[in-house]
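REQUEST
  id: r-88c1
  op: predict_structure
  target: LacI family DNA-binding transcriptional regulator
  payload:
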Amino acid sequence: MTSVGNERNLTIRDVAQRAGVSISTVSRVINGKKVRDELQVNVQRVLNEMNFRPSAVARSMVRGRTQTVGVLVEDISSSYYAEMIKGIERILERTGHHPLFKSSHWNLQLEEEALQVFLDHNVDAIVVVGGLISEARLQDLAARMPLVLVGRVGVSVDAPTINLDQQGGAYGATRHLIELGHRQIVHISGPTSQEDAVARRLGYLDAMRDHGLEVRPDWLCEGDFLETSAFRATMQLIENATPFTAIFAGNDQMALGVNLALHRKGLRVPDDVSVVGFDDLPVSAYVVPPLTTIRQPAQQVGELAAHAAVSLMAGEAAQLAPLDLKLIVRESTRAVRR
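RESPONSE
  id: r-88c1
  status: 200
  body:
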């Protein structure tokens, strides 16, 4: 038997010599090509005895595939994207594919650099989640390889696209507060360079307008989808004596920042201020008080995107099932006090 120390240096030539066959025969067996039954059994036995693991790079050169899928998200550390990544990994690992993740941090140059990394690694498909890449660039990618888009509203690209009604979800969150009697409602949005943030702001504005409510300029705050930005915005609102009875945060992470700021200023949720988030991250059901939010099925989105990529790589049409957003009412909202 070959020692463990030498296993890393084994080559197809070593296997061929021990099995008494040609290098091409060993290569055919490794890559699943047809050889005579007795040769197949002999070579496979030697491969097992030598604990031989073929180079992934070498196999990809033979097969023309790397079994990798490039996945570009805006922030891999975000709790929402972490949930989506779980869904992507769950599906790809079942099919023998491996994801290569990159974050763009809402930066076009970083997005382009990430795409180049994917191309340099000869990925078999690319999943792009959100982002700023132009329609022309996306169409060029779609013409070259399997491409799946998530959250790119308003682009016309020959690629399967998964979009959720962000504007409608935000409308529902704001309407929930209005139905509880709130009239002074603050919205802390994500960065206005980001499509989802813009759509959610529009949903808030639509709901306020449809219910005959005016929006004060200081009720519109811009954050960055992270806790700190919403914490600072809320502290500023209170310090400026801005009147409000409710806050609709553009995502759950910012809602957590809102909650902390209110706590620091001695305001209680929901007795003094009602708070609504967006995404329904797992932690949102366990904060105090549990957060009312819009459920966005992040893991299902990831699974759907991965399924679509696998289908395209197999030369099949991608099947995209509809996904809905849902208002989840918990204990962070209550009827306004008269």
